[in-house]
Amino acid sequence: MSAHTIRKKGVRKALFMALAFVVVAVAILPNAWLALTSLKTEREAFTMPPQLIFRPIVDNYVTIFTRFNFDNYLVNSLMVGLLSTAGALLLGTPAAYAMARFRFTGKRQLSLYVLSTRIAPPVLVILPMYLIFGSLGLLDNYLSLAAVQIAYNLAFVFWMMSSFFGELPEELDDAAQVDGCSRFRAFWRIDLPIVAPGLAATAIFIFVQSWNEFITALVFTGNATKTLPVAITSFMTAQGTLWGPMAAAGTTVMLPMLVFGLAVQRYLVRGLTMGAIK
Questions:
Q1: Which of 97, 170, 236, 262 has its CA 20 to 30 A from that of 246?
Q2: How many CB atoms lie within 10 A of CB 43?
Q3: Kind plus residue range of the DSSP H or E element containing 227
Q4: Which fold does the domain 68-275 belong to in CATH?
Q5: How far apart are CA 37 and CA 32, in angstroms?
């Protein structure tokens, strides 16, 4: 290999590393700034030039958990996230298996129709669903918000899991049925354990989306079931914005997902790369 080729590869690698550093910095700096602001007094937060060395305080966190009952909103977000994730997987996974394994007329058209429910913006269905749940007395309820998010996430589960099931050889099911398994037992005992990494990756995406959902949560929740993203708006009052508590609230919303993402990172990578290597 010539010296010119080596230098060219070195320059290309350096440019790639510099670009990667810029991308990471753009992603991390706003979150780091938010966390630092949550540990400052309001005066320090607006000091120019910004103070990078200061005495951290936890008053803003004490305020959001004592004065604004942020622990209740944390539980609400967790409940809605678990319900919507479990419901979407419970309904979408068998449907994805059926789409991957069975052949029937209109299969492609049905797949595109399911996808169209994901393409459509949630705003289109908020009003009719609000009227339906209002007539049933289900507003300000975990089930109503979870049902809306399940309906919106079903298409995502359907397409993700159908691709994972489609990568499995059909001979697995044939062999299981020869050994006496029913179609459902073959799905439950053979196929589902194999695609478990993909199922975990899908569950992670759904839970994160549910945790960060704002529009539907704003419409369908009240004081009893208000989630964290909606609760953050409580810091914008008629007297002004409470920047310190708002920064602490934003950090509180972000931190569990950061820890959760680091904890399940290997499952996410395994799920997303499943079937990439034959």
A1: 262
A2: 9
A3: none
A4: MetI-like fold (1.10.3720)
A5: 9
Other Cβ atoms within 10 Å of 208 Cβ, number: 15
What is the rounded CA–CA span in Å between residue 116 and residue 159?
A: 11
For 259, counting Cβ atoms within 10 Å of its Cβ (0-12 exposed, 13-18 middle, 19+ buried), the class is exposed
Contact 166, 274 (CB under 8 A): no
Closest CA to 146 of 82, 96, 209: 82
Task: Kindly state the tokens that stand for 21.
Answer: 């550093």
User: Which residues, listed in sequence order, are joined to residue 236 by a DSSP beta bridge?
Assistant: 241
Give me the tens of pLDDT residue by residue for the chain, a chain 278 residues long. Answer: 566 666 767 778 888 888 888 888 888 888 888 888 888 887 877 777 877 777 888 888 888 888 888 888 889 999 999 999 999 999 999 989 888 888 878 777 877 777 777 777 777 778 888 888 888 888 888 888 888 889 888 888 988 888 888 888 888 888 888 888 888 888 888 888 888 888 888 888 899 888 888 888 888 888 888 888 888 888 887 777 788 888 888 888 888 887 877 777 666 666 555 544 44
Query: What is the domain partition of the chain in residue ranges?
Result: 3-38, 68-275
Tokens 């909103």, located at residue: 73
Element (H, E) at 81: helix 70-101
What contacts 24+ positions apart, CB below 8 Å, involve 43-46? Answer: 45/243, 45/244, 45/247, 46/243
Element (H, E) at 236: strand 236-237
